[in-house]
Amino acid sequence: MTPERSAASEDAGLTAILSPSLERDIEAIARWHKKAVVLAGSLAPLSELLDSTGPRRTLVLTDGTNQEPVGLILVALDDPEPGWATVALLAIARQEERDVAALGVALLQAHLQGEASHIRAGVPPDVGLALYFWLRLGYRPVVSGQGLWMISDLEA
Fold it and tell me: 78-109: per-residue pLDDT in tens?
């Protein structure tokens, strides 16, 4: 997904919008960031996440109903090796946003086509909800020395 594009998806009356982060979004995210539900990766201070360098994209997940940011997705391309994309963070404001987050992951997968063949997300060790979230999306668990990863192959 190029930094200037956004994408939207609808399912069962829900609308999710995945877009590059904007200043107005950062202010809204800051209000819930410290209390966010983490579905992938680990929650670092917001300033640290936004100042990251390298082939990483920061995307905002917005509920299309009220245009309010409900999630934050950070994706590292070519991590851990070329052809892979790692979801370094998927955080949502409240547990109730899981369905919007699922639509956001589907949008992310679609926009990674041509840039990655595989996608992985690290499951936080203390959040069983995250494991079930990724399983429900069809990801398969792989245990490594670094923890539990949820992996999916992207269609060519």
Answer: 999 999 999 999 999 998 888 889 989 998 99
The string of DSSP codes covering 124-155 is PTT-HHHHHHHHHTT-EEEEETTEEEEEEEPP
| pLDDT confidence of residue 13 | 56
pLDDT tens, 42-70? 888 877 776 655 677 888 888 877 788 99
**List of residues 6+ apart from 100 with CB closer than 8 A:** 14, 16, 61, 63, 70, 71, 92
Residue 134 makes CB contacts below 8 A (sequence gap 6+) with 39, 40, 121, 123, 141, 150
Fold of 7-153: Aminopeptidase (3.40.630)
User: Which pTM was predicted?
Assistant: 0.86
Residue-wise DSSP of 43-105: ---HHHHHT--SSEEEEEEEETTT--EEEEEEEEET-SSTTEEEEEEEEESSGGGHHHHHHHH
